[in-house]
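Entry 14. Two folds queued back to back today. First construct below, sequence then structure tokens.
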Amino acid sequence: MSTTQTAPFSLRSIAVPAFGPALLFSIGEGAILPVVALSARGLGASVAVAALVVTLIGLGSWFFNLPASLITLKFGERWAIVGAAAASAVALAAAALAPLLPNGLWLLAAAMLVVGMAASVFSLARQKYLTEAVPVILRARALSTLGGVNRIGIFIGPFIGAAVMQFAGITGAYWVGVVAMAAAAALSVTIPDLVAKPAPDDGVPVPQATLRSVAVSHAGVFLSVGMGVLLLSALRASRQVVIPLWAEHLGMDATQASLIYGLSGAIDMLVFYPAGKLMDRKGRQWVAIPSTLIMGTAMLLIPLSTGFVGLLLAALLIGFGNGISSGLNMTLGADFSPDNGRGQFLGIWRFMADAGATGGPVLLSAVTAVASLGAGVAATGVLGFAAALVFAITIPRLKHRRNY
């Protein structure tokens, strides 16, 4: 009697269709992010309104996480990814044409909202796809790589946009985004379909999960591990604001601040895969706790820095801590998501993470307004220690071979 052996799964087998669209999508995002506020100002917006237009990207992503789960459920992961990338391409084309229209500012604002909504669908669908396509033994590596690919795209996107803007003006950045998003949509068509799971042997149909039923049945997870994810997201978002603000506080010019921020981002990109490998082999706590402690400590060190070198060292430490946490939120979401209702679970999970990303800078702003910038930075650093404590208590002390 012969036996059939299944070839071992390799991430390389799905690397291009799984990670290629994510890289292209993030390049498109990275290309436009530095110029959205400038575009709004050019269309007559005040500084406050220009900042709001930029914020619409994040707000669109945050509030569309729950509908994104329903869209992914209805159309499937592949076509949700394709549709989201195509919608972003159309929105960025509209943004590029906004200066030619009388109500261009409104069109730009609507386009940024659509980009945020599409990013929500794109991110949720690709996370769900990798969660189901990749064996648990490789899950953290796959999702850490996904997070790392996003960072790489966001990092190089502005440079591509800047190169094109030398010839096409500020709208060139949007056309870079259009091309990148359209390429992401085209490449996403090649994503292999997931193999359907067999029906239960007893023949009893499994009731379809809903957002409400998943929220109720997994409330304990959302209120425990989910709070750690919320705190981690708040810490991550705050670091993006803290570094340039403290650089300005120390009297540095824009070039010095950009250099520090860029070097921190470079460190961020270098360590995502080893961290994913460590999570797969040793368990999620081996990355969750150190990364949040490192970022929290670095935040507390920033108010103590008095010059370029001190801020640079603290920023590099933040970059390292954030880099090793690449994919951590997605991995934990995948670990705790149920087979029935995974899309709805991930929608709620991402909603909580984006709530933290929005709340972190708000906390920084509030404490700074009441006390000082140094106190505000220190308050965000405390978030790292709080997240580490939550993760230490709530993440099961289990290795990768169990699907939590």
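Second construct, same run, same settings:
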Amino acid sequence: MKNKKLVMIPGPTPTVEPIQNQMARETVSFKDPDFVKDFKELVVELKELLGTKGECMVVAGTGTLAMEMAIANTTKQDDNVLIVSHGFFGDRFVDMCKRRGLNTDVLASEWGQTVPVGEIEKKLGEKTYQAITVTHADTSTGTCAPVAKIGKVVRKFEDTLFILDGVCATAAEPEYVDQMGIDVLLTGSQKAFGVAPGLAILWAGPHALKRRTSLGTIPDSYFDFEKWIPIMHDPFKYWGTPPVNLIWALKESVKLIKAEGLENRYRRHKNDARAIQAALEAIGFKILAEPHCRAVTLSNVIYPEGVDDQEFRKLLVEEGVVVAAGLADYAGKAFRLGHMGNIDKHIIVSTLAAIERALHRAGYKVKFGETIRVYMETLLLSESA
């Protein structure tokens, strides 16, 4: 008998039944009055959830589209952009900016570390930057940027907009747009929201909207904030066909988040992540990210000596769990384990047990039940603190 397959990659993440049910509904016209009402309510709820007096846009597309939109609506050719990169996905902004004729400077950290906030402030003081980009949680490294501290620094430079890539963080790591000085926050539906892939989601604060107005007509059409904002105010209007069932699914996700409580959700992700990481370290794995900057949405897990990556991941699939391969210098040396969204303790315990079984089959000595013991002890202590 085959085990049920748990998809524990850094996204897409598992979808729970209430969200699945929304995706399985009979599709209606995007001008159906009930759908229009649902869409409009969703946009308002998203603005309230992450706290902005600006705008929120929900667009058919991916997180990559959202990155492009953020740049296209806040900069023009020959503007200066500072890219703070903590891994592969931070580096993606470099190519996007250069293609738009922007002058790019890059502050990059060693993989597993983050750029010190003091270095960011020093660099911002060297010349006028129209924007700074930061990836909140980089899935290539499992690191988490200190967003609130960076936002406080960027506020000192009134001409600089703070663009935050929250693709692997939003709804799991604390993000409050206006309060934290974030001017554009972008994400996708398939990570901590726990919805299937297909939606790009952006929040634009007042300063970002003012910048968009100052740019006049931009060369992009589908990307343009000014095309989408009227739709978000009145979804009965048309610019591009909304993915009806995904909109419903995202609305259900927000309902689940509000029922849990956003701060409770942040706390749950942190407690689970720290307990998972401690459990894996207890049986010989190492975590790539330094303890002070570990993301709560995923872990990049370095193998003990003697464990072959391809064999281990193949055996792990047979044991019922799918994880992602390491990237760049860590290809073959690590795997990436997602633990975000609506996964529960049952899924986590099953995942840890499958890791133990796969290690045993790979010839690595394992004390069975050790990961589960450490996970539960660490978790229960953190929950009672």
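Quick look at the second one. The chain has 13 helices and 15 strands. The two ends are 41 Å apart (CA to CA).
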